[in-house]
Amino acid sequence: MDRTKFVSERELEYQRECTERVRAMNAGMTAFVDTYGCQQNEADSERMRGMLREMGYTIVDDDKADVVVINSCAVREHAEQRVLGNIGHMVHYKKINPEQKIILAGCMAGEETVRQTVKKSYRQVDALLDTTSFWRLPETLLRLYEQGGRLIEHAEPDSRIAEGLPVVRTVPHKAYVSIMYGCDNFCSYCIVPYVRGRERSRDPKDVVREVRELAADGCHDIMLLGQNVNSYSGGGVDFPELLSRCAEVEGDFTLRFMTSHPKDCSHALIDAIAAHPKVERHIHLPVQSGSDEILRRMNRRYTVEQYCELVDYAREKIPGVIFTSDIIVGFPSESDEDFEGTVELVKRVRYDSIFTFIYSKRAGTPAAEMDDPITHEQKVKRFRRLMALQDEITLEDRRPLIGSTVRVHIDGESRSGELNLTARTQEGRLVSLKGDSGLIGTYADVKVTDITTFSLIGELK
Ligand code: 5AD
Ligand code: SF4
Prior knowledge:
Blueprint: E1 5-6, H1 9-25, E2 30-35, H2 39-54, E3 58-59, E4 67-72, H3 77-96, E5 101-106, H4 112-121, E6 127-129, H5 137-147, E7 160-161, E8 174-178, E9 180-181, H6 192-196, E10 200-201, H7 204-216, E11 221-225, E12 233-234, E13 237-238, H8 239-247, E14 254-258, H9 267-275, E15 282-284, H10 292-297, H11 304-317, E16 322-329, H12 336-349, E17 353-358, H13 376-398, E18 405-413, E19 421-425, E20 430-433, E21 443-451, E22 456-460
Helix pairs in contact: 1-5, 8-9, 9-11, 12-13
This protein binds 5'-deoxyadenosine and iron/sulfur cluster.
């Protein structure tokens, strides 16, 4: 059953009114949106930049701007500390520019503990704007300008979808398309369901229309986004069907998606990837642990065997497909034996790369209440062992590519070194190469001359 509710046209109209009123008083002010965390936040930031631009701000990359929106991540404590540290520094900028408005947006803004901390100890923050209500940015700024004071009261997550927000894309040929918001999985370590609210899916017609417009606009890299895209359910359409409809849109582009939960990743999805050459030959399939007992305690609702069955099926149906994963080490009470299970799984799947995290306790989640007798040193040791193992696998599996020719899309400039361009293969692997910056946004054939754990090194043919 479709439970999705949309923000009404009347409410969106009110935001447009607020936009006009801020614009009328805006005499050349600047705005900066600083993004932490995942692609979902990147996508939200692009919309916030769009709204700020409509309010007359010049978008800059500078935390001394007249408006600073910090789009934060709450997934691990370390990320939160970084955000709070940066907000701490901003107290000086505000002394120089007392009219500066600082808004803490993103996942941290939805946490009650953060709200309390900000209220008491970070008085430079003018407003909190959680991920479910960032479409109220115009109203928030107008209230700050007209009424003064701070807007940091508690707000319940707003489980609705706001369509039609403006967008400023960071890279013209690359776009994120959110297909759903929120998460209902409640993995026991994860704070996301508490801060991003209940799962809700966009209408498939809106998604396909957006993909069509992007493709017509010459966008080459389109990523469908959701916390768990496999539980997409909009207007009676499931994710394999939505992916197929998007892949059938005319145009020269690669379709990617993020993130797949293994419990909902079906053979139908794998068949849909296999059937559509526009879909990237890559599945990011976070396994989190290679121990059935830990998976049970994580509330992941699949077993190692079920996971491996999916991987095997995909490898049979999609020649050359690569897998990447997220893995948490040191989940409460993870024994040596549990950890060996993860090592075995990594050896069995042979991922192209993995993101490894040391478990971070998040207040309010069930795992935060579990006994955790393992020392931090033990966790760090496991973390390092897993990283070293994956590096070995990555290098071994990429070595045969040396000397071959791969088709890539040239994405952009790299920040350092002689290899000034970055590109991506059809499997989404990063390629570093030397070439004219005029090639950005085009496809090219590249000879692989070397490999690293991070990227392939290539030469234009
Ligand atoms: N501690 C460590 N890692 C976590 N992740 C989510 N919550 C936590 C946590 N409390 C990781 C998971 C997820 C990725 C985005 O972040 O691996 O897939
Ligand atoms: Fe967090 Fe699990 Fe939802 Fe991913 S699927 S956002 S890990 S609760």
